[in-house]
Amino acid sequence: MNDLYKTIKSVSKGLFKDKGSKFIAFAYPVKNEDEINLHLATLKKEYHDARHNCFAWRLGADKERYRINDDGEPSGSAGNPIYGQLQKRDLSDVLVVVIRYFGGTLLGIGGLINAYRSAASDALDHSEIIDVKVYSKISLEFGYAQMDSVMRNVKKYQLIIDNQQFDLECKLTVRVWKRDEKRVVEKFGIIEGCSIVDI
Q: Which strand (E) or helix (H) includes residue 58?
């Protein structure tokens, strides 16, 4: 599995017009389906007079979770071209919604595909694309005497502490960048009295 994936830093907007129809696009960085549903509900309320709210999203470092929605447009004419822009830029943890105001002239399947693709592309062109690190979790148990050695590694490898319990027996759960995982596991493994209980 890759140790980096691409997403967008903040919300961005795009626009495309054709034969009186207006296509307003929004790109959102998202972490889960609850966030996605909230954005969709908010847009539906704000643009309640629009004919269609079509969207596509993709979640996770492995990019395996995704959904496409044509919202009443001919099958494959809206969601797929929007999703294609996420694929083209290799993005994940992103929702793109394109809202259509009908201009009175039918665009045909080809025209719709071009419109939804162009609107989504415009929104993503206005986004700042960033790399996100993929992390693994490591749980450790060690004695108080090993605290300094353990915490030196935490600092050196910029590990993120999720849970900690410091008593006579200490427990620590950290997140480590996948790129450093093997090296970090080896470093903790050579500390006498420190055991890795879960990875």
A: strand 52-59
